[in-house]
Amino acid sequence: MNYQAVIGLEVHVQLKTDTKIFCGCSTRFGASPNSQTCPVCLGMPGALPVLNKKVVEFAIRAGLATNCRIAPRSVFARKNYFYPDLPKGYQISQFELPICQNGHLDIEVEGEAKRIGITRIHMEEDAGKLVHSDIPGLGSSSGVDLNRACTPLLEIVSEPDIRSADEAVAYLKKLHQIVVYLGICDGNMEEGSFRCDANVSVMPVGSTTFGTRTETKNVNSFRFVKQAIEYEIERQIELIEEGGKVVQETRLFDPNTGETRSMRGKEEAHDYRYFPDPDLVPLVISNDWVADVALSLPELPEARRTRYRSELGLSDYDAEVLTATREMAEFYEQTLEKAKQVAVGFNNKFQEYKKSNPSANLLDFGQHLFAKSAANWVMGEVTRALNEAGKSIAECPVTPPRLAELLALIEKGTISGKIAKTVFDEMWSSDKTPEAIVEEKGLVQVSDTGAIEKIIDEIMAANMGQVEEFRVGKEKVFGFFVGQVMRASKGKANPAVVNELLMKKLKGE
Question: CA within 20 to 30 Å of 457's CA: 132, 170, 268, 416, which one?
């Protein structure tokens, strides 16, 4: 029998606020255990929670970016269960009335588009964590670090619309990119800022009745999510084929073995005895507040990619790479904005451009002139240098205005693309402008036809055998002559002028 997987994901997004959701304690990662706590996050009797307004704003941002309806009224609830790192004996969350509902994300897997529904997004506090260690002479022990208790989370719950591990990863990657673009999460999966619970079941192909599901908890990498889901699908199918039954349970993923294992029986909502938190009044969100948040949203990756293709003429690949992070997209756009302002220096090219674009102005032309070259440099030399230096693009020593100046020198013919790479490396390690480096090192490109003709004549005279080969049809030797001329000019000869003059002379014109 063939089986179909049914997958739903619950994603926990740790919000990038300075303080916790219900108190003023810091959310800084890596502090000494229990150094960022107070009576509220320690669950002391009589301590009262106070809602952090920034958490609500971030929830609204996430809801709008995932096409959700923002509830005008939502309620906090107590989710009751016992665990050593949950000092109150309950978690403040939302249940019947979450802040966001009925959204969706569109994904693409192997060229096929698919819409994944989002059931809800709700706000909640995180629990603390247990720290296990071995003490010489005393054996193993466990301690409780409550720094993380009360840290603000969004839980984003998908519909069971996902049918494969690849679809799950595509959905998670898109969601991860969105929350980082929005500035509400740092996206650090190693630190647990973005983690996933995967609900997996299988059913016979053609069936409309879902099988019994398991939940694999707290998977914190895209690779592990894929492995966990694929393993769980295979395990459930094998179990059914052998006459067994899938048990509804919570499981853990072991990255060392690539397998899931049973952790505990799966609780249902009624097991948690949810009820409205009496210490927190219902949250009322006005339409005006939602409208203000909507106006503050950045342009999201999908919209940016569409604009780059339609307005800038970039390829799908270029648009995808340049929008991978908000920082890279903004670096590219700042470079292009500065570069296109120098288009006034290319009047002849502008007049040629206007013949096919009569209504274009100089900025339109500048955008057309530099869009592709700016993209190539950001994806190429800038990314290469950042990777080698282990820096983020925010730390790039070559600023967008300086990179734009370099692109202008190339376009003007002052330097060649090859020489520009040498200039770029010098800019990386110094605070000098590209113009100053070119002048200081004597790197100005030679476009004087007389000087280039002299070099060509000398090269041809020294290589008459290759000249004859070219003239009897062996045109591959043309590259040999180009290389010889560029070497003789120390890379300074204008390649376009070299190609034009060399072709004429080799043909005997």
Answer: 416
What's the chain's length in residues?
Answer: 509
Most trustworthy range by pLDDT among 13-22, 332-341, 351-360: 13-22
Among 33-42, 48-57, 267-276, the range scoring the smallest mean pLDDT is 267-276
Supply the pTM of this predicted model. 0.85
> What is the chain's mean pLDDT, rounded?
92
Mean pLDDT of 98-118: 96
Q: Report the alpha-carbon distance of residue 330 to residue 334 in Å, rounded.
A: 6
Instruction: Determine which helix (DSSP H) or strand (DSSP E) holds 5, and give its type and residue range.
Output: strand 3-14
Q: Which two tokens stand for residue 236?
A: 């459930």
From residue 41, alpha-carbon distances to 78, 126, 130, 145, 198 in Å are 14, 10, 16, 11, 28
Boundaries of every domain in the chain: 3-289, 298-441, 449-506
Using CA atoms, how far residue 214 sits from 36, 52, 252, in Å, is 35, 34, 10
Q: Return the pLDDT at 446.
A: 67
Cα–Cα distance, 295 to 475 (Å, whole number): 60
Q: Per CATH, is 449-506 categorized as 1.10.10.10?
A: no
Q: In what order do the strands lie in the sheet with 3-14?
A: 69-70, 100-109, 112-125, 152-158, 3-14, 194-204, 214-219, 249-254, 259-265
Q: pLDDT tens digits for 80-105?
A: 988 889 999 999 999 999 999 999 99
Q: What is the dihedral of CA 306, 297, 119, 213, to 10 degrees?
A: 70
Tell me the three state secondary structure of residue 456: helix
Report the distance separating Cα 27 and Cα 15, nearest Å: 9
388 CB-near residues (< 8 Å, 6+ apart): none
Task: Give SS3 for 286.
Answer: coil
DSSP H/E element including 485: helix 477-488
Percentage of the chain exceeding pLDDT 70: 98
What are the backbone angles phi and psi of residue 496, rounded to the nearest 5°?
-65, -40
Identify the residue whose tokens are 């009262």. Answer: 48
Handedness of CA 148, 154, 159, 163 (dihedral sign): negative
